[in-house]
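Operator note (shift B, R.M.): manual run for DUF3577 domain-containing protein requested after the automated queue skipped it. Running by hand, logging everything below so the morning shift can see what happened. Input copied straight from the record, untouched. If output looks odd, do not overwrite the archive copy; leave it for review.
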Amino acid sequence: MMSNSSTQKNFFDLHTQGLGYLNNIRLVEPKKGTPFYSCDIAALVGESSQPEYRFFNCNVVGKDTANLVKRCQDAVNANKKVLIAFVMSDLWFDTFTYQKDGKNHKKGDTGVALKGRLINIKMVKVDGELKYPNPTEAKTEHVENANVELATPNA
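Run finished. Output pasted below as returned.
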């Protein structure tokens, strides 16, 4: 009797989801390897009336996610506000040296960049108008945790 055994690799996933503005979409063409898209996300945190931002540099992963990012490129280049609901994975940081003086740093200072892999985009709004998912399709989708109540903002 012959037995086929396959070894399945297990991974630990760290996923971060949020809402933020899409910026600086670019195609990265490494000398060795396959070209890929990269973008920056200014993620919203804190109270909705006075949000703060956390900035992430993301490598775009997956065909569907890359297609959505490419579809947003013209709007981002036209300085429109492109708001996305996103899922990032594998967060890490990278250090760099500032090459010129800025508002909050001097040339030669060490900076820290937060990085991740953009693996999913759940929603896209351009200047407040829902673009993805298609508004007519969104009405027919089932919602996970439909019994969750949203808090009403204090007036």
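Quick read of the result: The chain has one domain: 15-136. Confidence is low (pLDDT under 50) at residues 138-155.
Leaving this for review. - R.M.
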